[in-house]
Amino acid sequence: PVRMREFFRRKSFSDKLRSNFQHILANPFFAFLLGAVITGITMSTAVSVGILVPFYAYNVIGIRTIVPYVLAANITTFSDTLFLAVLTGNFQAVEMVTSLILATAIFALLSGIFFKYYLYGISKVSRFLLVRPWRLAVIVGLSILVPILVVFRGS
Would you state the pLDDT for residue 104? Predict the structure, then answer.
C-alpha cells in the first residue's frame, strides 16, 4: 500500500494535482461552488472538509484557497436538514433551520468582506493554541464538556 505522504510527494502526481486544485480554488467563487457541490453530494461537512486536510497538510493547497470552500460547506450542510424540516410540515422546524442557514451565510459574507483580518485572526488563534499543547487540549475538552453540561442542565 502507498502511504499518504508518499502519495502526495510523488512529483508527477503532486505537480498535476497542485496545478489543478490551485487553478480551480484560486477563484473564490469556484472554491465556494466546489465546496457547496461536494457537501451537497455527500451531505456531510466532515467528508467534504476532510477531503481537504491531506491536501493542505502536504502544501498542495493553501489556507487562502480553502476558506471559501469551507464556508460553502458550512452553508450547504444544512440542505439535508432543511429538506427534512420541510418534510415534517412543521413551520417551527423550517424556521429554525432557515435561521441557522441565514446566520451561517451572514458569517460567510462578513468573512469574505473582512477576509484579510479573518485569516489574520485564524493564524493568531492557531499559533496561540499550538504553542502550548495544553491550550488546544482545553479547547477540545470544552467543546466536549459544554454540550454535555447543556444537555444535562436542560433535563
Answer: 84
Look up residue 98 and give its three cell numbers. 432557515
Residue among 124, 113, 31, 119 at smallest CA distance from 71: 31
Could you identify the residue written with the cell 479573518? 118
**Res. 108 pLDDT band, cuts 50 70 90:** confident
Return d(Cα 99, Cα 106) in angstroms, integer.
10
- Rounded to whole angstroms, the Cα distance separating 2 from 22 reads 24
User: pLDDT tens, 88-97?
Assistant: 989 999 999 9
* CA 70 – CA 98 distance, rounded (Å): 19
Q: Are 102 and 118 in contact (CB under 8 A)?
A: no
